UniProtKB/TrEMBL annotation, chain A:
Start-end of each WD repeat: 434-475, 690-721
GO terms assigned for molecular function: ribonucleoprotein complex binding
GN (gene name): ERB1
Family assignment from sequence similarity: Belongs to the WD repeat BOP1/ERB1 family.
Naturally occurring in which organism (per UniProt): Wallemia ichthyophaga (strain EXF-994 / CBS 113033)
UniProt-recorded name of the protein: Ribosome biogenesis protein ERB1
Species lineage: Eukaryota, Fungi, Dikarya, Basidiomycota, Wallemiomycotina
Automatic annotation (TrEMBL), chain B:
Protein name: Ribosome biogenesis protein YTM1
Keyword Cell cycle: no
Family, per entry: Belongs to the WD repeat WDR12/YTM1 family.
The species this protein was found in: Wallemia ichthyophaga
Main location: nucleus
Amino acid sequence: MAISKKRSRDSTKGGNAVAQEFDNKLDINGAEELSDGDNDHLSSDDEEPAEFPEINPDSDEDAGDSDDDANSDNDSIHSSDSDTSLASFSSVPSTSSNVSDFIEKASKKPDETDYYSQPPKQKLGFEATARTVRSDATGEDKTVYRNIEPGYDSDSDTEEQQNAIGDVPAEWYEDMPHIGYDINGKKILKPATKDELERFLEHTEGDADTVPSKNMQQDMKLTPDELRLIRRLEKGQVPDDAFDPYPDQVEFFTGKGKEMVTPISGAPEPKRRFLPSKWEHEKIMKIARAIRAGRIVPNKPKAPPKPTFYAIWSNTDEHTPHVMDAPAPQEPPPKTIESFNPPPEYLFNEQERKEWEETDEQDRKIKFMPQKYSNLRLVPAYANLLKERFDRCLDLYLAPRVRRTKLNIDPESLVPKLPSPRELKPFPIYNAISYTHNARVRSISVDPTGIWLASAADDGYVRVWELSVGRCAYSWNIGEGEPVHSVEWCPDKEVSLLVATSEKQVTVLSPLPILTTGLSKASAQQADFAFANPQAGATKTADIRYARPNESQRENGLLVKIEVPGTPKQVVWHRKGDYFATVAGDAGSKSVLIHQLSKHQSQAPFKRSKGSVQKVQFHPTRPQFFLVTQRYVKLYDLVQQTLLKTFLPGLRWLSSIDVHPSGDNLIVGSYDRKVCWFDIDLGDKPYKTIRYHNRAVRAVKYHPSLPLFASSSDDGSVQVFHGRVFDDLATNALIVPLKVLKCHTLANGLGVLDLHWHPTQPFLFSAGADGLVNLYSH
Amino acid sequence: MSTADGRNIPVILHSISNEHKIPEEMYMIPSTWKRFQLSQLINNLLENVSAVPFDFFIGEDSAGGKLTSVLSNHSNGEETLHLSYVPSILPPKHLSTYEHDDWVSSVSINRTAHNEHKFLTTSYDGVASVWNSRSEKTVELLGHVGPVLAGEWVGNAVVTGGRDCTVRMWDIDAGKPSQTLQCTAHAAPVSALAVAPPLLPSEPHTLLSSDWDGLVCLWDTRTPSAHEVDADPEEPVKKRRKSKPAAVEAVRKAPIHRLRGHTGAVNGVSFAKEDQTRAYSAGADHTLRLWDVGVGLESDSRVAASALRCVDSLNLHGVAVSGHVDRSVCVWDTRSSSTSNVAQKLWGHGSVVESVASHPHSPHHLASAALDGNVKLWDVRSPKQALFTVVRNPANGKTEKQNKILGVDWDGGLLASGGEDCAMQLHEARA
C-alpha cells in the first residue's frame, strides 16, 4: 500500500490541532493541491498561515455566539472536556517551522525529549479561547469558552460511519441507486463513480493516499494519524507512538552514594567457588583424550569444497524424472530400406516410382524414396531433415500421451483365500459301491435311518437297497413299464414309508417284508389310518382319488394309491412326515398338490397356475413353501397364504432347488449350467453364482447335517462343495469347491439325474441315466 | 555309496521261531546278495530237502524288498549286521469254490476240529450252511426269516444272526440239526457275532451280538430250562416258511448284558484274544468302543476318521484291527490312554473294507476283504504294502464288477472268503 502524502480531513476533527498542524505543513509544500471542495468551514482558518496554535478569534466568535443559547450549566462540562483534550494533546509533537525537520522527527524513533521537553502550549492556546461576555439574561459577566468539538480520539465511528447495512456483501446493492442506509434508515445514494480517466489521472498525480471503502463504495482518504500508524507498522514499531520502548533506567540502589555496605547474607563463601569444576574437567579431559587418540585433529585444514558442475556430455541423466514425466516414445530403428546403400530389391522401379510420386504426400506408405549410393561420401544432405524433425515434434506435442500406471499386484493375492480341501475333510472322494439298475434311474432317496436306499427307474421299478453292501433288498413294479419319476422316503423315523410317482399316480409304499416287526406294523397302520377312519377325509376332489390296493399288494408294501391329474415329476415330504407335495407340470392349476397321508386329503394350494412349476420344497423349519417356476423362486407362507418373497436368480430355466437344513439359505440349479446360492435374508439376488458344470445342472442337494452340498449335471459329473453357514449373521456363507466325481457315463445326452446325501455320514448318492446309482464315500 | 562288488559284510542270522534254527555264527556274505541267496544259505545249513523260502528282518522291521539296499548301503563293512528270519508266507493258492444260491454274507472256519475242516457260511437267502473240506454241504440251517447276516462257530455248535433281529443257536452234531436257543433282545437286524471260548470246558461259551440300532448284547450259550422272554404275540407265524426243521420251538433267551453306547449302527464285535472279559465293537458313528464284558460297561472309546465296518483283535495284547469306510485298515493300540491312537493305517484297498480276520496265532498277520473284490494279507510290521492280494476267480458266472466280498476268515492255513459272487472260495495261505 503506497501512501505518499497524507492530509487530514477537516470535517473529521475540527478542533484538532494536530490536523491543523498537518494541514499547515502540507499547505506549504503543495497548496495548489487543495481544492475548495475538500475543505469545510474549519479549513478556512487555514487559509492564513497563522502561527500555531493561535486561534483565530473571529472564527471562534461564531461558535461563541452559538453557544450563548446553550445553558450556562454546561460550562463545567466544557472545562472538563477541555482537560481531556489537553491530555491528548500533550502527546502530540510540537510544531516546527521546518517541514523537513518535522518529517525527520516523525520518522524517527520517538524520543522522550519530543514529549517531555514540549511545553504545553496548547493549554495556553485553549485558555485563550475563554473570554468574558456580558450575559443577556442576567446582565452579569460570564466566561464563555470556545465550543469544543468532540475530540479526535472520541468515538469517530458513530460520527463518520453512515452506511448501516452491516457486514453484508456489497453486491446486493449493485443494481440499486443507493449503497445502503444510514443510522436513521435513510438511503445513502451511490457516490459518483470515477471514470477510468479520472482514476488514471489520480494515480499519475500521486494522490494515492486513499483506500477504497467497501462500505461507502468510494475512496476514503486516510487521516495523518492513520497514515502515521501505518508507517509505524511498516517499520515494525509499536503502533502506539506514545509507547516508549527504551525508558531511562531509574537507579534505586546503585550509583553514587547508594552503595550497600553490609552484605545481604552473612554466610561465608562456599568452597566450590574456589575449586575448579569437576564436570568441566571431565569434559575437557574427554576432548583431550580424543585429541590424544587422534579422533579430533585440532586445526585440521578443511578440505576444499568440491566443485559442483553439470556433466553436460554425460550419457546418464542423473536427474530423476518428475513424477508426471511421460517420456516420448522411441522412434523405430532405421530399416534396410533407409540405408544409403539398400539392396536392389528395395529400390523403386519405374512403376513404383511413378506411383510414389503420384500419391499424395500424406498417403505415401514410405515417406522417402530409397536411393542407392555407392559410398557414404556421396550421400547428399537430407533435404527433409527439418520437416521431419518438425513433424516429430508436432506429433509429440499434439498427440497426448497417457500415463499408464502399472499395477504391481500379485495375481495370487486377488484370488480369495479359501481353506484347502484337505482341511475340510471328510467329504466324498471315491465311488465305493454301485447299485445297478437296468434302466435310467430318475430319482433316489435314502431313508432317515441311513440303512436303505430307494431308487426309481424308467423300467417302472422302485428298488430298495441295503446301502452298506449294495444289495437290492426289495422292489416293486409301480410303473409297469412306464417310468417312475420320483421317489422319496418319509422323514419320520417311526415309520418307513416312501412315496413314488408315476404317470397319473402317486403310490405310498413301505418295504414291509424287510422291516422289523414293529416298524412294518407302524408303517402299515400310518398308511391305513384314513381308510379305517373314512370320515376324516371328507372333502374329495373330483380327479384325485385315494384307492386301497388289494391285500396281496398290501402285503408286498403297496399301501395307498392316489390317482392325480397329470404326471407328477417330483415328490417332497414335509419335515413332520404327514404332508407331502407333488408337482405335475402338465396338470394346469393342479400342478402343485399337497397331500395329507393321515387324512387322505389332497389340496391344490394355488388356484391359478403360477407358470410352469419346476420344483417345490417345504421350508425345513417354518411353515413356508418354495415354488420354483421357470425363472423365479417364490416363497409362500402356508399359514397366511401369501407370497413372501420372490428370488431372481437371473437364469433362464431352473431345474432344481434345495433348502439348507438351517432354513436360511437355498441353492438353485438351472439348465443353463449354473448353481445359485441364495441367502434368504440377504435379498432377492443370489449371494453366489457357481458355474463349474459344462452341461445342464440336474440336481442340487445339501447334506442334512454336515456343511456339504453337491450338484449334478448332464456332463456326467457330480461336484461336491463345502458350504458352511455361520450362526453369526454378519458372516457370509463359506463356499469351497471340493471334488469333482465323474463315475457316470452319458446316456442319450443325460448325465446324473438325481443326488442324495446320507443323513449322518458324508456319503453321497448319485443316480445316473446309465442305470447306475453310485455311493461316494470319504 | 559305492556298491562295492566283492565286498563282504559280517552277518549274524537269528531265527524268530524255534524251528529252522541255525548255529549263531558270523557269516561273511557278499553285499550283492538278495533274499534268495540268504534263503539258500539257511536251507543249505539246515540241509533241507525241499527249500523253504525265508523273509528277513533287521530288528523288528521287515527288511522286505529293502534287504538289497540295506546290504549294499552297509557302508563300512565292519559292523556286524543282525538279521532275523522267518519262513516266508507263500502266495495264497486257490483250493476250491463252494457255490451258494445267493450272496454269502459271512464265512467262518471251525478252529476246534483238528483233523477235519468245517466251514460255516451264511447267505442272503436265509440259509446258514456247514460245509466240509470236500465242498459238500453237510448241514443246512433253515429258520431265519430273511437274510442271515452273521454266523460263528460255538465249539461244534453254530450261532447265526439275521435281519429278522434274532440270534439263533443250532446243534448240528445230532443227526438232524436243531435250533437250541433263540435270542430276541435285538430290535434291529443283527450285524455281527463274536464268540469267546470258555476258560473251563464245563462252562458255556460267551457270545456277543451287535445290531444296526447300536445295541451290543452279551449272552452265554447255557440253555435255560424255560423261556426267559415271552413270545412276541405279533410274530406272524406264516412267515416261517422255511423253518420246518425247527419244529420244536427253541428256548427264548434273555441277554446277560445290554451294552449301550453307540449312537449309530454297530457293524462288528470282537472279543480280545488274550482276555475274554474285554471286547471291541465297531460303530458306524466313527467310534471303536471297548467293553468290560464282565460288568457290562464301556471302558473306553476311540474315535476314527470314518465309520468302522468290522473289527477283530490281533493276537497281541490290547491290539485291535478294524476295517473302515475310507478304505483303510486301522491297527489300534488300546493299551495307551489317548482317545484316538491309530497305531498304524494300512492303505491298499480300493473300497470299503468289509471284513477283517486276524491270524489265530501270529501277532502280526491279518487278512482283510473289501467291496472291491480283493482280499489282502497284511503283516502289520510292513504297513506300506500288503503281503499278498488274493485273486478270486469270478464264480457263478458273475461279472468282474459283481465281486464284493462280505466275509473273510483265516485260520492260519486256510483263507475263506465269500460275497456277492454267491460263493465261498477257499485259499491256502499259510503263515
